[in-house]
Write a structure and sequence with these properties.
The protein is an all-alpha fold and 223 residues long. Helix content is 67%, strand content 3%. The chain has a domain of 62 residues. A two-stranded antiparallel sheet has the order 1-2. Helix 1 packs antiparallel against helix 2 and helix 8 packs across helix 9. The structure holds protoporphyrin IX containing FE (HEM). The site of protoporphyrin IX containing FE has 19 residues, from helix 1, helix 5, helix 6 and helix 7. Protoporphyrin IX containing FE binds next to helix 1, helix 5, helix 6 and helix 7.
């Protein structure tokens, strides 16, 4: 049964296994990096991990190496996953621009509905790009901090403060991501997708009409 003719309660595949492994691997490593990073950052007086600073630092570095290896391993095991995800994230069109302009207007004040969106809406595309850019930033500044004693003090100090600014900038982004995923009724059905890989077709049609229309054109199946 194609995505066009399938009843609304049917499920469609939203994420492949590689994408799920990438997401949850990233989420776990990010949580470890955040907690150990906070432990290393807090001043000694109020710092519960001070006695085990070396261990915490080692865990932080191992998780950072894991973050670096994760996309490579996922791309090796599921060749089309990372490239496919990025392909769907990096394309912005006029509908994406319109969506971003109008999504900030409260729903009851909008004169027209939001432009229909592809597999990822413009906000999700931006979220993915910011997460990817921040990851590169964390890795570059982290390497500079790691090699700090061999570098000019001004460079290692700048890396140190950029590393912390990046962490602080990521906190509201992650908090927003969790509110949308876990709390907001209109977006909560996406949780099923990031756990099982599938979402209900009516949810997909409502929020990603361009994507479901394309699936229907290609005759892609709904369960
Ligand atoms: C318990 C923690 C988390 C939960 C419950 C969660 C939930 C979700 C859900 C439901 C989606 C799918 C949205 C869709 O249908 O497109 C998603 C996608 C995504 N998540 Fe997470 N996530 C978590 C942690 C993280 C972390 C720590 C990061 C990165 C720092 C992250 C980055 C992303 C990205 C880049 C996407 C794809 C684009 C988007 O939907 O915004 N997630 N997540």
């Amino acid at each position: 049964m194609s995505a066009l003719s399938a009843p609304a309660r049917r499920l469609v595949r939203r994420f492949g296994t590689g994408e799920l492994v990438l997401h949850w691997g990233y989420a776990v490593l990010f949580a470890v990096l955040l907690l150990t990073g906070l432990g290393l950052y807090l001043p000694p007086g109020q710092n519960p991990v001070l006695a085990r600073r070396e261990l915490v630092r080692e865990i932080h570095l191992d998780a950072a190496i894991g973050l670096l290896l994760l996309p490579v391993l996922v791309a090796g095991a599921w060749p089309r996953s990372v490239a496919g995800f990025w392909h769907d994230v990096e394309r912005f069109d006029a509908d994406d621009a319109g969506w971003l302009r109008r999504v900030v207007v409260p729903r009851r004040l909008r004169r027209r509905p939001l432009p229909s969106q592809d597999r990822f809406n413009a906000g999700q595309k931006l979220n993915s790009i910011v997460v990817a850019a921040a990851t590169v930033g964390f890795i570059v500044t982290g390497c500079l901090m790691w090699q700090g004693e061999h570098l000019p003090t001004s460079l290692s100090e700048a890396a140190d403060s950029w590393h912390i600014w990046l962490m602080l900038a990521m906190l509201p982004l992650i908090a927003g991501h969790l509110v949308l995923s876990l709390l907001l009724p209109s977006t909560r059905p996406a949780m099923r997708g990031i756990i099982t890989g599938r979402v209900r077709l009516d949810f997909a049609r409502r929020r990603h009409a361009k994507w479901t229309a394309r699936m229907a054109e290609r005759g892609e199946p709904a369960d």
